Amino acid sequence: MKVEFDFPLKAYNTFGMDVSCARFVQIDRAEEIPMMGDVFDAPHYILGGGSNTLFTGHYEGTVVHPVFRGIEKADEAGDSVLLRVAAGEPWENLTEHCRLNTLYGLENLTGIPGLVGSAPVQNIGAYGAEAKDCIVKVDGYYTDTLQPFSLSNEECRFGYRDSIFKHELKGRCFITHVWFRLSTLPRFNLTYKALAQAMEGHEPTLDNVSETVLAIRNSKLPDIRKIGCAGSFFKNPVVDAAQYTALLARFPDLVSYPAGEGQVKLAAGQLIEKAGWKGRREGDAGVYPLQALVVVNYGNAKPDEICQVYRQVIADVQDLFQITLTPEVNIL
Ligand code: EPU
Question: For the whole model, what pTM was predicted?
Answer without folding.
Answer: 0.95
